[in-house]
Design goal:
- By secondary structure, this protein is mainly β.
- It folds into two domains: about 120 residues; about 110 residues, Lipocalin (Beta Barrel), CATH 2.40.128.270.
- The chain starts with a helix and ends with a strand.
- The relative contact order is 0.10.
- This is Heat shock protein HslJ.
- It holds the Pfam family META.
- Keywords: Signal, Stress response.
Length: about 260
């Protein structure tokens, strides 16, 4: 009887341990630009050193953190960017009841002075308390956080305004698999395998450096038309499990999520 009770106790301990392991949460991924949750909520993040500061820009708010301003966190309402005509430079003029700031984002390679990490954007922040005249000018590096909703497998439904069919291609419909964390994509163009990189900014998406295998395609195959449309994309919308890719001329491609 004692042996049976001991076995039951041992079994209950094993079950309890397994339950505890199953309930433990995975550690949240963190980089110098913040947590993974930050990158999902904010479209642009930046940091700087000497003194340390951080910037998170979202559709609803802009959050600046630093001890130099006398406050650990300052929240500004989001504003539209002032864009330079001849360069990829954006300026944001923001203010609230206590502070005023000018944020400038320049598409220029930037190296973190401490970690040595290379980022694609140089950032400057000029900020002051409204009760003071003197501006504090800070510099650092930043990056756009590619929309996590793009991270999926998408199969083509429409090309240049027309529904597509398997007979328009070699064996199956074109598809793309987007890796938003690495800004890369791969897939099938309707005849050949394709791959390339993404260029992403707020309200801007481009498929660039597109390469493909060189298999001969059957007459009438629309892979060339598909590849051309893909490389002309500048904007996107996601909704109802569909991805619509467009440019100023109109809708180019519509995909459906399949996984």
């Amino acid at each position: 009887m004692k042996n049976i009770i001991s076995l039951l106790l041992l079994f209950s301990l094993i079950v309890s341990c397994k339950s505890t392991v199953g309930k433990s949460s995975d550690p949240q991924t963190t980089s110098e630009y913040g947590t993974q949750e930050d990158e999902m909520k904010y479209y642009f993040t930046a940091t700087g050193n000497e003194p340390f500061w951080g910037l998170k820009m979202g559709n609803d708010e802009i959050v600046f953190t630093s001890l130099i301003t006398g406050k650990e966190k300052i929240i500004f309402p989001s504003v539209e960017a002032i864009k330079a005509m001849d360069a990829n430079v954006k300026m944001y003029k923001v203010s609230n009841e206590t502070s005023t700031a000018t944020i400038t984002i320049q598409h220029l390679e930037c190296q973190n002075s401490m970690s040595g990490e290379i980022s694609p954007y140089k950032v400057t922040v000029e900020i002051k308390n409204n009760s003071e005249l003197e501006l504090e000018k800070l510099s650092g590096c930043g990056k756009y956080n590619t929309d996590y909703r793009l991270h999926d497998i998408w199969v083509l439904e429409e090309l240049n305004g027309f529904k597509v069919f398997i007979t328009d291609f070699q064996r199956e419909l074109p598809r793309i698999e987007i890796n938003s964390a690495e800004n890369k994509f791969m897939g099938y163009g309707g005849c050949n395998a394709i791959s390339g990189t993404l260029f992403y900014e707020k309200d801007l998406l481009r498929f660039s450096k597109v390469i493909s295998t060189l298999m001969a395609c059957a007459p009438g195959n629309k892979e060339g038309e598909f590849a051309k449309a893909l490389q002309n994309v500048t904007t996107y919308k996601i909704g109802d499990n569909k991805l619509m890719l467009s440019n100023p001329s109109g809708k180019l491609l519509v995909f459906k999520k399949v996984d």
